Structures are given as structure tokens and as C-alpha cells.
What does this fold into?
Amino acid sequence: MSRRAFTLIELLVVIAIIGLLSTVAVVATSGAQMNARNARRRDDLIAITKALELYYADNGQYPTTTNQFRAHCGYGNYPDTDPGSWIPGLVSGGYMSKLPDDPRCGKANPNSADNGCWSRTNNSYIYISDGKNYGLMAYCTPEGTLSSNDPFYEPNNPQRTWELCSDKSICNANNWW
It folds into this structure.
């Protein structure tokens, strides 16, 4: 008697193996996706700071926010402005073609080291400037933690925030955040 079909046990074994392999693949790629989002955040913040320095070179000051936070993609009661104007003058002045959004803009961040950042309304890039100095922050978006020697390290909120400032000592002294 010849056998032309698979038995139920053989099918279940194949389905279990496929399930196990797909689980391993998803777990392996989630870390790579997190690292890619963090790399994009770093690139975004660096690109913004370069545009801010060009703006400063042309205008003798940074785009001002009258010492109020300007945010895009949420963050509580701070103004969620038009994506093209949350840093005044950078897009309209031709310094950037578009202001970037965080890769998880409007989404919860379960990979944050701080549980307070799991809300989708907290994830944002934030800018503040008095014209002489500026602070730029990725708030509740970085995934994982930084060491204190990293240039993006923010000592007041090391688990939830990355920051770049025109002068780190002034940003810390003013305690803008």
C-alpha cells in the first residue's frame, strides 16, 4: 500500500517548526528596527543642528521661541504646531526642505526605558531658543539608554531624553527642560 498524503502529526510538526522560525525572525528583526529608529533620530537631530547653525550664520541669532517649547507630534500641553514651522524660519528660510518627524511620531513607545513614555502623546521632538542659545530634544522617543559620555546624553532625564544644545552648560543652567 503506497502512502500519498501527510499524516496529521507530520502536518502539526511542520506548522510548529514554521511558527518557531517566524517567532525567531520577528524577535531578531525587532532589535534591528529599534537601532534603525535610533539612528534616524540621531541623524534628524544632527541635521537640525546644522540647519540651526546655518541660520545663525546668516541672521546672527537662532530662531526664537520666546522661551516657550515648540513641539511636533504631541507632548502634553506644549503647542503641537504645523510640521513645517515648529522651528520658526528653518523651512521657510530654505535651511531645510522639511522638518523631520520622529520615527514613532504619534505612536506609543514600548521600548523606552521610562514607563512614562509609553503614551503616544509624549513622543516628540522639542525646540526652544532665546535667540542666543537653543535646546533641541528628542523626548520620550529614544529606545534604550545612553551612557553619560554620549553627546546626546541629557543628565536630568537620561532614560527618556536625548538633547543637543548650542551650549550644553547654558541649557543645563537655564533648566529649560
Summary: The mean pLDDT is 79.
